[in-house]
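Retro notes, structure queue

What went well: the backlog is down to a handful. What didn't: a couple of records were mislabeled last round, so from now on we paste the full input next to the output in the thread. Example, using Metalloprotease PmbA from Stenotrophomonas oahuensis:
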Amino acid sequence: MNVISPEALTADDSLSRLEHLADLSQQLLERARALGASQAEVACSEERGLDVNVRLGEVETVESTRDRGIAVTVYFGQRKGSASTADLQPASLEATVAQACAIARHTEDDAAAGLADAALMAREFPDLDGWHPWALQADQAVDLALACEAAGRAADSRISNSDGASASTATSLSVYANSHGFIGRDRSSHHSIGCALIAGQGDGMQRDGWYSSALAREDLQDAAAIGRRAAERTVARLQPRSMATAQMPVLYAPEVSRSLIGSLLGAVSGGALYRRASFLLDSVGTQIFPDWFAIDERPLLRRGLRSSAFDGDGVATRNSALVADGVLQRYVLGAYSARKLGLQTTGNAGGVYNLQVKPSVDAGLQELARQMGEGLLVTELMGQGVNPVTGDYSRGAGGFRVENGEIQYPVDGITIAGNLKDMFTRIEAVGSDIDPRSHIHVGSILVGRMTVAGND
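Corresponding output:
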């Protein structure tokens, strides 16, 4: 096990390390030009972290990590080659650039290949408040994880076992530079505490858990509170029933409702579109949600979990609507996929940045359950049963039966099914109970009707 000294943990040398990565990127770009590349780009990263796992009051693992990597991509006209290394010795860096050039010389022309347009590069780099390193030492992390697990195990006599608890901290430095003269630097931190518990005995055992994650230590939930929440969720699952197959409303809890937004993103992302593997082909400008539904992208949000002034191509990001009044406003494109589609990049190379789904009501699960009346509350999803081409949706699920507007008893061994196009139009409400642990901010989602298949 590598042990980080207290001095190394407390000294913040991140800016000098970023400058070192930036200098390396410039050297590599110059070398690519010298070898004949018409364009080139370099991505450098460095990560440090500490991760601790405990179980039943004993330490299982303590892991300290330090990783780094450099990826070089070169273009000879419209021929592309890429190579990467974790070795920063001059000979290794020289060989990496040479290998990327050799690959490019043997590839076929790709009309969409090349850097994003120089005019689109980011020029402003505001402080997005994403850097909050935590000088967490191994013994402190162990104490946090143990406190989390102990609180969970003591919270209810029906907790019979533990699947463990964890505490972690990580920081990341990255530089992206290209031959347009663009250079972007980023530093970020991420911390988490979590616990998974087991309740009941024999065939009646149930498992669940809870975790908290944030960019800054002060935004984490208290370790003991996390343990108690894990216990509460676990015992609530005891003695589940199945259900008779029926058509009924389905209420997605916040921690699973973001998967619905994830399905939307998969369908409107460039790779799926230019491969014609999306059920939302040619859908920009069409209504796919109720007329009150809205999703905004906020890449410049301070302390957002995925904030950035530039995307993976160096293109400037901007606040914009993805869905407004239920109408799809745009796709999610980087430079390459945009060219393949004959469109303009949306500044989304590498994904989306801080999506916010607008709540339609100031209400959470209990209120939406009352609105639903009769139906199913889903708190867990299993499997990957989504067909991206047709939108057909079928996933294993667990949760709670809702009757007369009240959450009654746990259910499992069921499947929920529908078609995403229909499901999107049948959304009746989005709650204000947003789960902050993701860059997709969304509350509970109530879908008016789906097929729920059980064993009864």
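Agreed that this is the format going forward. Reviewer comment attached to the example: The mean pLDDT is 95.
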